[in-house]
Amino acid sequence: MLNIGSLHRFLGRFEGDFGIIEGGEYHHLKRVLRMKLGDKLRVFDGKREYLAEIVSFERDVAKVKILQELPKLLPPIELTVAVSPPKGTRFDDLIEKLVEIGVSRIIPTICERTVKRPKEKKDRWERIIISAVKQCGRSDIPEITEPKPLEEVLSISGDFDKKLAGLIGSEKYIYDADYGRKTIILIGPEGDFTDEEKENIIKSGFEGFSLGGIILRVETAALVSSSFILQKAWKYEGSNNRQG
What we know:
Layout lengths: L8 E3 L1 E3 L2 E5 H10 L7 E5 L4 E9 L3 E9 L8 E6 L6 H12 L3 E6 L11 H15 L6 E2 L3 E2 H7 L5 E5 L15 E6 L7 H9 L3 E3 L8 H20 L7
Parallel strand pairs: 1-4, 7-8, 7-12, 8-9, 8-10, 11-12, 11-13
Antiparallel strand pairs: 2-3, 3-6, 4-5, 5-6
């Protein structure tokens, strides 16, 4: 019996009863994995996923025949994480882990005390996201935006039905926080938000939460808080219940 879960996954596009795999995905399929005609694989486009079979190689393009639609694996809620990018390569690692645990959107957020102000890295971040999606098995492709100033993040926060912010000194702990169908978590820089920023965050309708008395790094705070909310959502909403 074919073990579908063990098959390689590729990002592609669909044309009728066939799928097209090209670009870097084709290179990985043909040059790295050395897959051949007749080999089975899984192809997804961020909305659908199919079991397929390689039927031809044409000018750096692999054509596959769709055999069977596969169940979609989607996070139970749409969780956005707006986080001030940490120094070094830690933000790249954070992007990968946020995708793996089920975050739907990442907003690099520039605050007054943000140390790293990334430029021209969105393409690389998107490649990290695709790699993480292929590894963890989810069917959707999370979004990462261009870096946005905190003021802009606050201005668009009205699109969410639950708004949470990590604020040192908050009396409420993350495990007491609830979630909404569209939730945003805001995590500040290593030097914390300024007093003025905190005031604007609260005025914008965010509920502050604490992660305890130990001071956590930005990436740790983002992962811990996101994991708590998503695990609670998995428990009460179940899997595969959100429409893509």
